[in-house]
Amino acid sequence: QVQLVESGGGLVPAGGSLRLSCAASGRTFSSATKGWFRQAPGKEREFVAAMPWSSSNTYYADSVKGRFTISRDNAKNTVYLQMNNLKPEDTAVYYCAASQSGYSGSYSTTRSYSYWGQGTQVTVSS
């Protein structure tokens, strides 16, 4: 059982930065793939970033690569999404997600994840 709580969203001017946090409960969280997704109004939920549990590798959507960084603090059982050089098109509700323990498949689809946070709004003004 994994529960996720997101925070850190808000309103920021274009070019600014935000750091999203996702605090997790559940003893098996360390062995779960962690991901971030976002959903803009009228659009499908899309992949943003992921960190497989079995390695230190990270993966990003082309639209955010070089600007966003996913990281974790194992001691705090928290995953982060550092967002720099934000653009208006980054405006969306951002969701953190976790796979089942030991999952080693695809990281970029919603079907890969079993647990989801409530979402946090990120609004980037121009």
Question: What report would you give on this structure?
Answer:
The protein has 126 residues and is mostly beta strands. The chain is built from no helices and 11 strands. It has strands at residues 3-7, 10-13, 18-25, 34-39, 46-51, 59-60, 68-73, 78-83, 92-98, 115-116, 120-125. Strands 2, 4, 5, 6, 9, 10 and 11 form a 7-stranded mixed sheet that branches. Strands 1-3-8-7 form a 4-stranded antiparallel sheet, with no helix packed on it. The protein starts with a strand and ends with a strand. The mean pLDDT is 93.
Keywords:
single chain; 11 strands; 7-stranded mixed β-sheet; 126 residues; mainly beta; 4-stranded antiparallel β-sheet
Quickly describe the structure.
The protein contains no helices and 11 strands.
Helix content: under 10%
Proportion of residues in β-strands: over 45%
Secondary-structure element series: EEEEEEEEEEE
| Quantity of strands, as a count | 11
Mean pLDDT across all residues, rounded? Answer: 93
